[in-house]
Structures are given as structure tokens and as C-alpha cells.
Specification:
- The protein has 519 residues and is mostly helical.
- Helix content is 60%, strand content 3%.
- The protein contains 18 helices and 5 strands.
- It has helices at 2-8, 14-44, 52-65, 89-106, 115-128, 131-138, 147-170, 179-210, 212-222, 226-238, 240-252, 296-302, 304-324, 328-353, 369-395, 401-420, 430-445, 477-485, and strands at residues 71-73, 82-84, 143-145, 256-257, 366-367.
- The strands form 2 sheets. The protein has a 3-stranded antiparallel beta sheet. A two-stranded antiparallel ribbon has the order 4-5.
- Helix 8 (179-210) crosses helix 14 (328-353).
- It comes from Streptomyces carpaticus.
- Keywords: Membrane, Transmembrane, Transmembrane helix.
- Residues 487-498 have a biased composition (Low complexity).
Length: 519
């Protein structure tokens, strides 16, 4: 592609043309993957409703739905068009990864952070070019796109992902006040969000294992042919990240709704009936809880979600603070920014993971974005900031935990012994106390012998802790060691005088071992 751009593009526009081309390639790859899956399912279906054109219209609608656009199903039993606003997050992951890859390829060799936003906007423009014909193509099919939602959601998601990718490649541009703190807070926020969603995925998987029989029954009721069962399986896999986000919202406290004004949460938080609605047959919906509350067991299991987010946020914040040498105030500010960022990302995920699936009772599905984001930010502020400060203080300690414990015990025992030990000579005049100390010292030295070989005639004192066992090497020590370790001559060589040691650059001069210097 680069050679073609250099051949046909004018001078000075090669970089912008290449950025635009990377966006076009990313959009084509994403649409192509969905088109292959859709055409394979249409080919293997025993009852195709329309031709290949209808299948491609459905694929175009799914591609737009993956970017957050809302679809409208015109053919309903009541004759009223039904909106479809619930985005399968696994489909959203594909265009996000392709956009990130396109931005990274476009910024190969770039070093200036100010170049990142421009490249991201050009890549986004190239990516959005095929969206206009795709939206127009779906309008004549059974499932068409809602134009206002497409005009709002697609550019917002595309530009946000492209700019975030540019910042991750080149860093924050110069106008930002503190790019290092923003980068550290961003890493902590992304890690905390991943921990919260991962804990929610564990909750959803555990519920699916506990209700495996009900999920299997609903799986068999939806479709009989094997091609239909494969389509249901692919739909369940595409909605699996949505179930993780719903379970994360359940663990954070706000919960989620499954239509008909219901509320499924561990606590009666917000407005809702608190009763589980009558759900359609679908494997992921068969594992939903029955309403609000559930006792201490449910609360303990749900507490895993905020605990995971708080722990990961505090760990990343404290590690960055220790590496950069930040103080307590800077660490608290970074943790606060990370908590707010985690709340914003969770709110965006809740917006994509929920939405309408129809009218009346199916008008609301999924968690509330505002409540979910506020709960995530509140858990991060209340638990993440104090834990980050505690972990920073713990990582900056000068002694290990066992040393700290034993040192405190030793100091406590010494202080207790000093308080309990009676002071000799208490209540006596100073002269009497000094006399008692002299007699005590004289009694300590009584019975000690003298050593005439030692200077001063005293026995050597006890070696202090930390003093080496041997004396330091002095002048001539190496020579004495050489004479002691030299083998004794035997036989005829015993009466011969020792030969001189030649002085060469490799052998250092030593007056005591050099026999040639002696007469």
C-alpha cells in the first residue's frame, strides 16, 4: 500500500493518504469477517428467508450495531417497528482491535506525541467512509439502521478508540498539565475496569454452571436443525461479555433490569419492582437471579466484584507512585483520577451492554449507565484511595514484616522490663548511688584473670556484633602466607640456594620474595 500511495499521492500528502488508507482497510476487514460468518449461516440454513442480498443487509446492520448504532426491526406481529439497541460486545471488540491496529501501523516511525491526534482523526475519517453506504444499504431490508443513532454513536466510538490508541503509542501531547500522572491514572483505571468485568465474568460463569440444566433446555427449545443451534451458540458467545458487564453491575450494587420495570440487584437500590420478570427462552437469561436481596451468601459472592476492582486499582497506583517517587498527596490524587476514569469506562460499557430489544416490556434491558458508573467511582474513591496509600507505605518500608514484628516485641519487652525492674539506690543521695555503681563494677571484674601476652594484661573482650573475626591485612601479610604455603625442598634440591624470581610485567615486585635483591 505504501508504494501505491507514494506513486499516486502528491508530494506532502503521503502521510495523510496513508492514514486514510489504514482506516479504510480496517473497516473492510471488520465488515468482511462478519460477511463471511453471515453468508456461511445463510448457506447452511434449511429455510432461508431471502437471498444473498438480504443476508448482506443483515450483516451490514450487525456491523453498524457493533459500533453502538440502533437498529429497527420493521416486520413484527403487532405491526409496530421494534428497536434493537443492545450491542453484542464481542462484535464491538473486533472493530476496536482493528482500529487500534490501524493507528499503530499508521504511527510507525513517529516520535512526536503531537502527531498522534492528527493521525487518529485521519484514520477515523477513513474508517467512517464505508459507514455511509452501509447505513443506506440496510434501509431497504427487514432490519434497518436508525440514522440519528448511527450519526452519533459511530463517530463517537471510532474517534474515542483511535485517540486512545494514539495516546497509548506516543503518549499524551504537550498541552496536558501532568502527562505522567494522567498516564498512571489511565493504566490504573483500565486495569481496575478489567478486574471488575473479570470478576463479573466469574460470577456469570458460576451462575451458568449452577443453572446448566435450565440453560440446556432453553438451548434445545430455540432451534432444531444443527445450523440453527450453531447460530444460537454464536449469538450466546457474542453476548457473553454483556453478561459479564451485567454481573459486574450486580456486584457493584445497582444491578440490572430485564424489562417490565424489574430490578435484579443484591440490595433494593434504585427504582424497580424487585421481582424477576417472565423471560423468553435463552441460555444466558436462564441464569438470571430471581430479584433483589438473597441473604449474606449472595452479598458475600457479590462483594468479590468491588474487592477485585479496589485491589487492582490500589496496586497499580501504589506501584507507579513508588517507581516515580510520588508523595502521599500525589498518590491520593492519582488514585482519585483512576477511580473517576474507572467509573467513566464502566458507564460506557453499561451503555453498550444494555438497551431496548423491543417495545413495552422489552424497552429496557441491562444496567443503568449512570448508576453503574457512579457505583464504580464510589467504590474506587472509598476503598481504592486509602488502600493505595497503605500499599505505598508498605512498599517503602525499610524492614521486612518479621523484622518489624520482632523489633516491636523486643522494644516492648525491654520497656516493660525497665518499668518493672526496681532501681537500686532509689531514694539515696547521689554519692551513695555512685558508690553502689563502683562496687557493682568492681564485683563484675572480680575473678577475672590476666593474660600477660595481651596489652594491658587483660583478657580479650567479647567481640561485638558486626566486627569481623579476623584482623585486616597489613603490609607483608601476603609474603608471609607465600612462605608458609611454599613446599619444603627435598633431596638434592634441599642444599641448593633458592633461585631468583624473575621480575616481569606479569609478576609484581615483592622485596621479601625477590631473592635477587639479596646478597
Amino acid at each position: 500500500m505504501r508504494s501505491l500511495i507514494q506513486r499516486f499521492a502528491p508530494d506532502g500528502r503521503i502521510a495523510r493518504t496513508r492514514w486514510l488508507g489504514e482506516g479504510l482497510v480496517a473497516a473492510g476487514l471488520g465488515f468482511g469477517v462478519l460477511a463471511v460468518i453471515g453468508l456461511v449461516l445463510w448457506t447452511t440454513s434449511p429455510f432461508p428467508d431471502s437471498g444473498a442480498g438480504g443476508a448482506l443487509r443483515v450483516v451490514a446492520g450487525l456491523w453498524l450495531l457493533a459500533h453502538g448504532a440502533e437498529l429497527v426491526r420493521a416486520e413484527t406481529l403487532s405491526g409496530v417497528p421494534a428497536p434493537i439497541g443492545l450491542t453484542p460486545l464481542l462484535l464491538t471488540a473486533l472493530p476496536c482491535w482493528l482500529l487500534h491496529r490501524a493507528v499503530r501501523v499508521a504511527l510507525i516511525g513517529a516520535r512526536d506525541p503531537a502527531l498522534g491526534p492528527r493521525a487518529a482523526l485521519w484514520v477515523s475519517a477513513g474508517y467512517l467512509l464505508p459507514a455511509v453506504p452501509a447505513a443506506l444499504y440496510t434501509l431497504g431490508g427487514p432490519i434497518g439502521v436508525h440514522p440519528p443513532s448511527a450519526l452519533l454513536a459511530m463517530p463517537l466510538l471510532t474517534c474515542a478508540v483511535a485517540l486512545a490508541s494514539a495516546v497509548s503509542v506516543l503518549g499524551w501531547p504537550a498541552p496536558w498539565p501532568d502527562p505522567y500522572r494522567l498516564a498512571a491514572a489511565g493504566r490504573a483505571a483500565v486495569a481496575a475496569t478489567a478486574a471488575v468485568v473479570g470478576a463479573g465474568a466469574l460470577l456469570a460463569a458460576g451462575a451458568l454452571v449452577l443453572h446448566a440444566d435450565a440453560a440446556q433446555r432453553t438451548f434445545g427449545q430455540l432451534s432444531g436443525p444443527w445450523s440453527g443451534q450453531i447460530a444460537v451458540l454464536l449469538l450466546g458467545l457474542a453476548l457473553a461479555p454483556n453478561a459479564a458487564v451485567w454481573a459486574a453491575a450486580y456486584g457493584l450494587g445497582p444491578g440490572f433490569t430485564l424489562g417490565a420495570g424489574s430490578l435484579l440487584a443484591p440490595l433494593p437500590f434504585g427504582s424497580g419492582t424487585g421481582e424477576g420478570p417472565r423471560l423468553p427462552a435463552f441460555p444466558l437469561l436462564a441464569v438470571a437471579p430471581g430479584g433483589t436481596g438473597g441473604g449474606w451468601a449472595v452479598w458475600a459472592v457479590a462483594a468479590v466484584v468491588p474487592a477485585a476492582g479496589i485491589g487492582v486499582l490500589a496496586h497499580f497506583t501504589a506501584r507507579g507512585a513508588v517507581r516515580s517517587g510520588s508523595g502521599p498527596a500525589a498518590t491520593a490524587l492519582t488514585a482519585l483520577l483512576a477511580a473517576v476514569g474507572c467509573g467513566v469506562v464502566l458507564s460506557a460499557l453499561a451503555t453498550l451492554a444494555g438497551g431496548p430489544l423491543g417495545t413495552a416490556a422489552l424497552a429496557e434491558f441491562g444496567p443503568d449507565p449512570l448508576l453503574t458508573g457512579a457505583a464504580g467511582a464510589a467504590w474506587g474513591v472509598l476503598g481504592g484511595v486509602p488502600l493505595a496509600l497503605a500499599l505505598r507505605a508498605w512498599q517503602l518500608r525499610t524492614a521486612g514484616p518479621w523484622q518489624l514484628l520482632t523489633g516491636r516485641l523486643w522494644r516492648w519487652r525491654a520497656a516493660r522490663a525497665e518499668r518493672l525492674e526496681p532501681v537500686p539506690g532509689a531514694g539515696q543521695p547521689p554519692k551513695a548511688r555512685r558508690r553502689w555503681r563502683r562496687e557493682r563494677n568492681r564485683g563484675r571484674n572480680r575473678g577475672r584473670g590476666t593474660d600477660p601476652t595481651r596489652p594491658g594484661g587483660r583478657w580479650p573482650r567479647r567481640r561485638r556484633k558486626g566486627r569481623p573475626d579476623i584482623e585486616p591485612l597489613g603490609p607483608g601479610t601476603i609474603s608471609r602466607l607465600r612462605r608458609l604455603l611454599r613446599p619444603e625442598p627435598s633431596g638434592a634440591a634441599a642444599g641448593q640456594p633458592p633461585s631468583a624470581v624473575p621480575r616481569t610485567p606479569d609478576v609484581p615486585f615483592d622485596q621479601e620474595t625477590d631473592r635477587s635483591a639479596r646478597p
